[in-house]
Design goal:
The structure is a single chain. It contains 11 helices and 8 strands. By secondary structure, the protein is α/β, with parallel strands linked by helices. It has an 8-stranded parallel β-barrel with strand order 1-2-3-4-5-6-7-8, surrounded by 7 helices. It is globular and about 45 Å long. Pathway: Cofactor biosynthesis; pyridoxine 5'-phosphate biosynthesis; pyridoxine 5'-phosphate from D-erythrose 4-phosphate: step 5/5. Its EC number is 2.6.99.2.
Length: 254
Amino acid sequence: MTVRNELRLGINVDHVATIRNTRGGVHPDPVRAAKVAVSAGADGITAHLREDRRHIIDSDIERLRAEIALPLNFEMAATREMVEIALRQRPHAVCIVPERREERTTEGGLDAAGQLAHLQPMVLELGAAGIRVSLFIAADRRQIDAAVALGAPVVELHTGTYCEAIDESPEAFERERARIEDAAHYGAGLGLEIHAGHGLTYDTVKPIAAIPVIRELNIGHFLIGEAVFVGLDESIRTMRALMDEARNAVDARS
């Protein structure tokens, strides 16, 4: 039995662009990576257009919209510039993330609870344009309540702390897993669609994929790194298989 439609896999192609930009030019091409992801079993493509354009650039977003048939999840900071780009490009979804210029990657979740007044008009405007709005937040009930108050239909739970805990102790790893599971069920109970992502690897994905209310995982950096050794197609197919194995095991027990 397959569970593919129950747990989607979004592939983040940001760091293909990171490699390209270290030297300049056009290689490797993140749009080509997205096409490989399509053939390998991805259900969507994620790309983060940062304010400083350190990896994905505007033309990448334009090409992803034009050349990839899968839904595009446009990660963006909560700025007027990014809202205007989203309204112009009309991706399937936007995921509003925190962004600091000095960080290497997105660190932690968005403080939706502390930015209600700032986020509210953006969430309403994007939603009115037919764009599904997601908030990238910590697995925290206060932040989930804020997402509901803002009218965002989706939250993506930050899994970075959970992934780092695997190197601490089994107890820390389980504590972080349980925290994500609690938040996922809490949010789903309030009517939110639950996604998760950040830092997931072959070693950490199955416990998250086994949480039945999670509908989508977004994974990028690890898969791009693995592609150096086994190829992008193989790295994605292996991740897809682990996700499905975990979800099928849950279904078999229910």
